[in-house]
């Protein structure tokens, strides 16, 4: 691998008493360019999260989004620290190196669940960490909020119902 072909994830977002860690795989180009999680306006992440907590989502600044997740005891990060990838598709990810998720869990023992935003995040986590995660931490694979169509498309309403499980751990 050449260093100029590597894509790096962004810093984690975590406040005191985070109870749910939401892991994406690797931010897309729009998010990386803006240094904002789920910045692509077609990504349904923020719409789903705000709906889960019955809060209005409209023209909200990124700082307000971060305050929102911290207030609801949610941390954001990615399974992958860096990888080789052209474009934004998870299917284009190669030679990934994971983030130090176990270190994050050890430093934040109040985390009770890891919610995976899509299949790639979960697959990378399983490959590197599944056998070393404390058994009292729930691992929850959720449908991707990505704007890229999946093999099993779901409506936003269906995704909200599935994502609602994270509230059990907050």
TrEMBL record:
Domain Uracil-DNA glycosylase-like: 11-167
InterPro entries: Hypoxan-DNA_Glyclase, Uracil-DNA_glycosylase-like, Uracil-DNA_glycosylase-like_sf
Top-level taxon of the source organism: Bacteria
NCBIfam families according to UniProt: hypoxanDNAglyco
Descriptive protein name: DNA glycosylase
